[in-house]
Specification:
Length: 234
């Protein structure tokens, strides 16, 4: 990809992380975020293995789906993602992102099952995982739609953005211009520029959006930084 050649780069997707929302009012929190300009809703699925936290599962996705048509971008922080494909598809998940660290050769079957269940497929990598490990999942005939580069250790919201992860984002953007590249962890007004310049187009933001008095303003700023960087080239 040459400087300025951004023809195939997908447009910005701003995805508030519902991990930072008031879970007791999830439907109204989702509605509020969409009214503030969110493109996607990012749903963090944690079940006390892979990460030491417990959040929500398919029944909550199913309940939320009754209240919104929005793209539900589900990040499965689990060690056995194939067990979750059918329940999440039936619940109404739109995207299903699994972790590269928990799959071996079975990723091909997993990918097929996610897509044939009608969901967009994503693969996530922890900060310590090398980006080269996910190349086969993007290069093959059957490939993921999105790579999620974790910019914090997965498990909890409110952590500090790890800038070194931007090397991974930039390698991916140059090699796969068409790919959705998502970043998650510590994104907000002070870190978006770096992420956008590296080539991220899907921005997950929890604390910075939910903790703001002006969530619409934050979402709009995140989007404009991604748009500016895409126009300039990476
Ligand atoms: O996946 C996550 C943690 O595993 C969260 O989505 C992420 O950390 C977003 O929260 P914040 O913007 O507050 O960092």
């Amino acid at each position: 990809m040459t400087m300025g050649d951004t023809t195939n780069v997908p447009s910005a997707r701003i995805a508030p992380s519902m991990l930072s929302s008031d879970f007791a009012n999830l439907a109204s929190e989702a509605k509020r975020m969409l009214e503030c300009g969110a493109d996607w809703l990012h749903m963090d699925i944690m079940v006390c293995h892979f990460v030491p936290n417990l959040t929500i599962g398919a029944p909550v996705i199913q309940s939320l789906r009754k209240h919104t048509d929005a793209f539900l971008d589900c990040h499965l922080m689990v060690t056995n993602p194939s067990d979750y494909v059918a329940p999440f598809a039936q619940a109404g998940a739109s995207g299903f992102t699994f972790h590269i660290e928990v799959v071996k050769d079975e990723w091909k079957d997993l990918l097929k099952s996610i897509k044939s269940a009608g969901m967009q497929a994503g693969v996530a990598l922890r900060p310590g995982t090398s980006v080269e490990q996910i190349f086969p999942l993007v290069e093959g005939e059957e490939h993921v739609d999105m790579v999620l580069v974790m910019t914090v250790e997965p498990g909890f919201g409110g952590q500090k953005f790890i800038p070194e992860m931007m090397t991974k984002v930039n390698i991916l953007r140059k090699k796969f211009p068409w790919l959705h590249i998502e970043v998650d962890g510590g994104l907000g007004p002070s870190t978006i520029e770096e992420a956008a310049k590296a080539g991220a187009n899907c921005i997950v933001a929890g604390s910075s959006v939910f903790g703001s008095q002006d969530p619409a303003g934050v979402i709009s700023l995140l989007r404009s930084k991604v748009q500016d960087a895409t126009m300039r080239g990476f």
